[in-house]
Amino acid sequence: MDKITLDRIATLHPKIRQQVLDAYTHINNKLLGKGVRLRFAHTTRTLAEQEFLYSFGRTRLYNENGRRLQKVTSAAPGQSIHNYSLAWDIVLLLDKNKDGVFDEAVWDTKIDFDGDGKADWMEAVDHFKSIGAVWGGDWKRFVDPPHFEMTFGHTWRSLKNLPTFTETINGKVYTYPKL
């Protein structure tokens, strides 16, 4: 199991945490072949982290090497389901050298690394959808293939107005909406 992903799952809303962990475990142990692993690139995102991403291509136009930055999110702080700990983004990790080190991140939704006739990305998508997650790859306005969310019928606007509670995880305090 990937410790980075396990730490990220631990920050998800308690109402989805175990279900998402179980799905993650199933995908890695039963669906993906040897040499391919699933990682969660993002889960809970603070408002400051959201502001940083939202600035790309808007107020932050160039990276440290002078390359023009593109917009990476259309969600301002408070407008992302990540800000409410109800969303996660995935990436596949590939062990290119077959040495047990997962050294390449892959966002290709069509590659079938294990040769079982179904793209590995889509195996993960189908399993997350089977537990009730909404997949950003199905969206019409802003297609977001790495993104999944479970909102229980809420939008960011309604989540923003719910009462909250806190939980301390690994010494850091997280605030969650009461669902």
Task: Describe it.
It is a single chain. The chain is of the alpha+beta class and 179 residues long. The chain has helices spanning 3-9, 14-31, 47-55, 120-130, 156-160; strands at 36-42, 87-94, 104-106, 134-135, 147-149, 164-169, 172-177. It has one domain (3-45, 80-177): 2-Layer Sandwich (Muramoyl-pentapeptide Carboxypeptidase, domain 2). Helix content is 28%, strand content 20%. Strands 1, 2, 3, 4 and 5 form a 5-stranded antiparallel beta sheet that branches. β6 (164-169) and β7 form a beta hairpin. The longest helix is centred in the first third of the chain and has 18 residues, at 14-31. It starts with a helix and ends with a strand. The mean pLDDT is 94.
Brief sketch in words of this structure:
28% of the residues lie in helices and 20% in strands.
The ordered string of helix (H) and strand (E) elements is HHEHEEHEEHEE
| Residues in β-strands, percent | 15-25%
Total count of domains: 1
Give a quick account of the main beta sheet: strands, pairing sense, barrel closure: 5 strands, antiparallel
Reconstruct the topology from this structure.
Layout: H1 3-9, H2 14-31, E1 36-42, H3 47-55, E2 87-94, E3 104-106, H4 120-130, E4 134-135, E5 147-149, H5 156-160, E6 164-169, E7 172-177
Antiparallel strand pairs: 1-2, 2-3, 2-5, 4-5, 6-7
Helix pairs in contact: 2-4
